[in-house]
Write a structure and sequence with these properties.
Radius of gyration: 25 Å
Number of domains: 1
Number of strands: 2
Order of helices and strands: HHHHEEH
Structural class: mainly alpha
Number of helices: 5
Strand content: under 5%
Strand order of the largest sheet: 1-2
Helix content: 55-70%
């Protein structure tokens, strides 16, 4: 009896396999895009331009979060079709049915979950550091002495 407790039900039950893969992919995508959204928000708050700083608000953050979640759910919905449990000859028991599905899942995951957010985080992080340096330089610049008239 104890040896059966180690069985992974997602390897044998089709809907659990699909649900696990869907939750795995969408949660990773949501997490990386929310971190990227926070990076953009931090950049907006560090801008010297007041109009850009006003773009950072809780309402916009909530809206961005909802858009990211909906986008991820729609993006990975084909995985419900692609993945299946108990596949014979597959490297894993819960695996993609076809090569086309594997290519889709791998390419979307690589580009949407890893590459694009990473590039945007790097760019906006660099721009945030640049804004902070400009602000620091502006605050630390010595005051010019006032010229007094000798008359």
């Amino acid at each position: 009896i104890v040896s059966n407790w180690t069985d992974d039900l997602t390897d044998t039950i089709g809907w659990l396999c699909k649900l696990r893969i869907f939750i795995l992919y969408t949660s990773r995508t949501i997490a990386s895009w929310l971190i990227m959204l926070a990076t953009i928000d931090r950049w907006l708050l560090s801008c010297l331009n007041a109009r850009r700083r006003l773009l950072s608000s809780l309402k916009r953050a909530h809206r961005g979060t909802i858009i990211i979640i909906l986008f991820s759910l729609v993006l990975y919905s084909p995985l419900f079709y692609c993945y299946e449990a108990n596949l014979v000859g597959a490297p894993l028991k819960c695996y993609s049915r076809t090569i086309l599905c594997r290519i889709f899942a791998d390419q979307v995951y690589t580009s949407i979950t890893v590459v694009f957010p990473l590039i945007l985080m790097f760019l906006f992080g660099f721009m945030t550091m640049s804004n902070v340096r400009k602000l620091k330089h502006r605050l630390q610049s010595p005051l010019l002495p006032r010229m007094s008239n000798p008359t």
